[in-house]
């Protein structure tokens, strides 16, 4: 699972940090040597509190989990048995006042015990990536969202830039942000004199249907990307 997370970060052209339960000179399992080289080559890091030459003793991995949670904004638990290392990471995250997210699972699956229990205890339930995105601090979401072309003078990276929007939809899309929701009343006020209420609702429906925007509770809208 750790390897999959690092590969996902590399695939998304991000930087990732691997925290080892061994010395930094001992990559475990050995087949991850290529992955370790890729992490370093792309500007990431490999860290460990254990001395050089430390072998992969089972007790080392739960110990290092507090470092993983401590250097993270939050921890997402997908599967975790009752006595798993992931459960330890989640507990460390709670003690360190980090956000904890959990993907619910079938109650008959022993690996669903961890996430289901965490949700009962108040962890954020995650069904899609948007559930994690909404929980991120606003300043971090701003840094992750492509720059606004109006403020930077450059075209923002978007799934929808290649397709020109109809005028009514374009007017609304221009008013919305990806990192901050806009309430329907505020949107109506901004577009007063340009679009009627029925035109606004119709355009919002089309934008939402095509996946360009998303409606949040309370008639709030955000761009997707």
Account of the protein in words:
The chain has 225 residues and is an alpha/beta fold. Helices cover 43% and strands 12% of the residues. The protein has helices at residues 2-11, 33-41, 60-70, 85-95, 113-120, 129-135, 138-144, 149-152, 167-175, 184-190, 197-209; strands at 17-19, 45-47, 74-77, 99-102, 124-125, 182-183, 213-216, 220-223. The strands form three sheets. It has a three-stranded parallel beta sheet, with helices on both faces. A three-stranded antiparallel beta sheet has the order 6-8-7. It has a two-stranded parallel ribbon with strand order 1-2. Mean pLDDT is 86; it is low at 148-162.
Short summary:
This protein has 225 residues and is an alpha/beta fold. It is 43% helix and 12% strand. The chain has three domains: 1-57, no CATH class; 58-136, 3-Layer(aba) Sandwich (Rossmann fold); 154-223, Arc Repressor Mutant, subunit A.
Please report the first level of CATH classification, the CATH class of the largest domain: Alpha Beta
Mean pLDDT score, rounded? 86
Q: Ranges with pLDDT <50 over ≥5 residues?
A: 148-162
Measured distance between first and last alpha carbons: 26 Å
| Structural domain tally | 3
The helix fraction, in percent, is: 40-55%
Radius of gyration based on Cα positions: 22 Å
Major sheet characteristics: 3 strands, parallel
List how many beta strands DSSP finds: 8
